[in-house]
Amino acid sequence: MNQYHKVYDAIVPAVRHGDPVPRLLLALLFVAPFAPTAHAEQLSFNRDIRPILSANCFACHGPDAKTREADLRLDVREEAVAVRDGVAAIRPGAPDDSEMIRRILTNDPDDVMPPPKAHLPALSPEKIDTLKRWISAGAPYDSHWSFVPPKKAAVPAGSHPVDHFVNQRLAKESLAPSPAADSETLVRRLYLDLTGLPPAVKDVDAFLNDASPDRRDRLIARLMDSLQFAERMALPWLDGARYSDTHGYSIDDHRDMWAWRDWVINAFHINRPYDQFLLEQIAGDLIPDAKPDQIAATGFLRNSMNTHEGGTIPEEYRVNYTADKVDTVATSVLGLTMKCAQCHDHKYDPISQREYFRMFAFFNTSSEPGSGGTNSNTNPVMEYASPLGDGGVEGLKNRIAELEHHKLHPTEPVIRARAEWETKQSPPDGPFAAALKTPKDQRTNEHWQVINAEFIRAGGPSANRMKIAVKTIDVEIGVLQKDLKRGKTTVMVMDHKPELRKTHILVRGAYDQHGEEVSAGVPAVLPKLEAGEKATRLELAKWLTNPAHPLTSRVVVNRLWQMVFGRGIVESAGDFGSQGSWPTHPELLDWLAVDLVEHGWDLRHTLRTILSSETYSRSAAATAGQLEKDPRNQLLARSPRTRLPAEILRDQALAIGGLINLKVGGPGVHPPQADLWSEISHFGYSNPFTAQIFLPGRGASNYRRSLYTFWKRTSPPPVLSIFDAPTRETCSVSRSATNTPLQALVVMNEPQFAEAGAALGKRMLAEGGDSAESRLTFGFRMATGRKPAAEELTLLSSALERHQKRLGNEPAAYGMIGSTLINLDEFINRP
Amino acid sequence: MTPLETHLHSHSRRSFLGLTGLGLGAIAARSLMAAGTTPASPGDLPHFAPTAKRVIYLFQSGGPSHIDLFDYKPALEGLHGKDMPASVRQGQRLTGMTAGQSSFPVCKSIVPFKQRGKSGHWISDLLPYTAGVADDIAVIRSMHTEAINHDPGITMINTGSQFPGSASAGSWVSYGLGSVNQNLPAYIVLVSQGTGKNPGQPIFSRLWGSGFLPSSHQGVQFRSSKDPVLYLNDPDGITRSDRRGMLDDLSQLNQIRHDKLADPEILARISQYEMAFRMQASAPELADLSNEPDWVFDLYGPESRVPGTYAYNCLLARRMAERGVRFTQLFHRGWDQHEKLPTELTNQCRDTDQASAALIADLKQRGMLDDTLIIWGGEFGRTVYSQGAIGNGRDHHGRCFSLWLAGGGVKGGVSYGQTDDFAYNIVDNPVHIRDLNATILHCLGLDHNRFTFQFQGLSQKLTGVEPAHVVNGVLV
């Protein structure tokens, strides 16, 4: 055995961090039990054949003309069956006479398909068999399913549409659904799904004591009316819209888009129909006599990252920002990976590079510059007041007060250095000596100013840091004060200046390689755009929200489904194209999509439909049969126990500790975290930039809901990233839900989670009655929504006794129990 | 495994099994079924026998000047101060910082070069310690990139794409090969600020982010603070035995819930909490240098005793390598010498030269250099012409730059690729960043063409869509 084999042996038994799955077993993991099984039933081109052709053939024999080999394309039937020199790739009815099958089966490395240079695994015998049976049956093609307008399949009278389709599939797979969850579980599930906050014990009791048959509907209606519902609905939208409080590129200083974020929350609160919601965000500025509210909505498109790095070539970045807008609309609204067609024709979907740049043309008329925006928004901007609450006034004032404090005490290292320096001072009588003599906790701002002045005069690196920090903080205060004086903040918006430039195809996507000039337009495979060559973003927005559009309604109901169940009916929520996932319940997806449009694009209607189903209210307990047949729970015989999204998990902890501050809207807040910013940022540069040092909030602002946490793209809030929040640099429509040791460290030790645990302990003492048993029961109900079982209570009681003995005081002992409760798997997952 | 780890491992394994009454195999098999959110398998990896078990990537952020460090050009002696001929530039684009200059005066290296070691590598006097390990390193003088500014440049070399959203090299390796040490992250990041240009250009967490890969593969930053890993320490007043007791309670409560719901993710959660508990011991042990003898600090230089410095981080990197961390990456800022080139570059070299060379020597004497791949380099090089007055500084240059590799699978003493007399254009054996990434993966036993992840309808690769080639010329 040579040394390399030794190395190899050492690597094999490795375990992936955060993923305790031995490598050898990995292969088993990805056997998707409900991958299309084409044996027992009629073949479907879209379900059974297209995925095989797409994954294995289209890269060289698909829509991209430039890389097409042998002038053969297999995505179009006429071309695939054409006989050339007596040979046809596909000869309908005759698989053995079809060149495609011969080339798949051959052993000749020069002939075999897919060829070795494609680095694809050989086709499995099952797939080859599927292809042969399809050819035998005449090789029928179908339009790609998501490009065909959805239709409502019939639902038997009296059946709930969701349950009808879900149960039909379960019956087909001989899977028995789990029984209904108990009421305690259901009420907690509804609260978390709809508001992202847990029910209080009294809320649970109110639901349990409500005997009326429509109690679920009434609870849903009440929760939907709350601002907390609007905040919860905004969360996934903000991911897709890549909402952020900083520019993202290079210096990554701040921007002011929070009023746009508040626009989104408000839109969900007033239940703006989805077509209107989209229309305003994509083209609000072009609506005749547009109101400020409608123009502000176009901030959606302006959430693109932005740079002012020194050597930037502005046109290169202006093109990047425009491409990002195309990508965001394509991914989040259309569910298409249009980005692939920026440099060449799409390899899998019928989107040519020319069509990509026709879409690009819609967004290429803005006066937005390629470089700029130091410590501020770039043009075009609009003055706008947040539609929520006091328009952000209190938030602005509060942040200014926080910053004034930091001006006196800037950053931990400087404070430490000053404290050390202070001990070595023995000044003669005077204001400095008087300030030093005053105990720290009694010093006034004036005292600190005198001390700081001396500290800076003494010089040295820490003094210099203090000087620069003060300069930086002054810039930040200036920005906020401007907003405050004006009574409005600003938001970056779209404008339409077609005279600025023409749109060209960019050869290989390069900003300076102009090809053919193109006009605005949409891909030919999708419905026609009536306005023709004169179309603007407004016509694009109307086209997207046309009731007959095959994608818009499907994509949004799928995202709602994903929000509730953790996974979409189409798992690839951002890809409804040829390479995307086949829907687990295609008829249900289509039914919900049509139904949404029929009900005026009312998202609450669709949510109510989903939430009123038996499927929704099932127990999460799995049977052995379910685990064996459907380990990933794709068919929903049981309710999914998805790990709660980062923001909801943190909000829940703050809520049950009684710490949460439910103020709505306003500028971003800065709950405490380590100052990771200054470790990577431009802090210390002679010209100050905003958002380069982390200056924690003080007091109540630290307990705001997590969606208000100031979002710095190059260093996102660590508590949220550790729980899979995306960076918000680009459009993202689904999050992973990992399970890692770093997450355990957050919930056990992060100061706010620890504080929440301790606070829950105090509440158990104050609100949980007089006996240990009632207090433990109260705490358990706060954390899980249900009463503890006898063995759980016994366990908690003996834990409490242990803590009491060790710690010797009640609040500390109950605090340990509080912390234990918020670390329960049951607390971290959807019930 | 260190003795402490062996102890912790057996201890936690014991308590773990005692608590749950289940074998590890059972847990693995169940959590296996639950990994519902992982969309694709990396497949059976590695693809072939690797030459390196682990990587230490010494990333020099800002664009170190190849002209003053590794790419010796005697012809520049006679051209110093003269305008660079237009035929050299070939109309290539320049950054916004020098595109408007009226002249482009050639500036020779600010220090002399000498041939070093048996191999005769040309290395400048700014790097005396690196010169001492010349025969262990392979210098690539023909690196190139399309990026001409920092943000796209550092994003490109660390993630294979100039645009945000792709996965970093370290997260790819974590995804593909996982961790050898269950008690430490597979991918650890250490950040330092140089004394040349301070502050250096900003860096971003996307450089060690997981992009489209599951976020459990993102790099974990080790910091020189009380908490080397964020939130590692228990709150004040909580002892280790309190924590152990709490975790025992938690495991039992979770187990009761599992008995009721049969959700394998609950068992996975139990094991992640146990792993966190072990990490609470293994991470401080890793960061505790008190047992390192003086001669080790002497080897890495006096700054290796100062937390947060590059030298300190190099020493930590060796300790991570010993403990089985798969991918350790240092990010050292300050290599952006637009001005004050002589003083700033000298300072940057003083920060890094001794410790980088020490890392090679230290691993070598421990018998670990053979299976540790070390990479030293930045996102691009710098222009032969002066930015501003002659000798003032140099602008960014992506057309060519130098970088070195050492250790697992690398042929020491080799120099690869060649640039023209102006160190401006490549004349022989160009190596694109994607070729470098293909080579790194190759050393780890991974075929870059087959190492993919499905995202947005594409088989995403670290090396991107253009063809990439392993640089066999620098490999044994």
3D structure, described in words:
The complex is a heterodimer of chains A (831) and B (476). Chain A is 48% helix and 3% strand. Chain A is built from 38 helices and 8 strands. Chain A has a two-stranded antiparallel sheet. Chain A has a two-stranded antiparallel sheet with strand order 3-4. A two-stranded antiparallel ribbon of chain A has the order 5-6. In chain A, a hairpin with a 2-residue loop joins strand 1 and strand 2 (19-22). In chain A, helix 30 packs parallel to helix 34 (751-767). Chain A is globular and about 105 Å long. Mean pLDDT of chain A is 93; it is low at 1-33. Chain B is of the alpha/beta class. Chain B has 2 domains: 1-36 and 240-294, no CATH class; 45-224 and 307-474, Alkaline Phosphatase, subunit A (3-Layer(aba) Sandwich), CATH 3.40.720. Helix content of chain B is 35%, strand content 16%. In chain B, a hairpin with a 2-residue loop joins strand 16 and strand 17. In chain B, helix 9 runs antiparallel to helix 10 (264-287). Chain B is globular, with a radius of gyration of 24 Å. Chain B starts with a helix and ends in a 16-residue tail after the last strand. At the A-B interface, helix 1, strand 1, strand 2, helix 2 and helix 17 of A face helix 2, helix 8, strand 6, helix 9 and helix 10 of B.
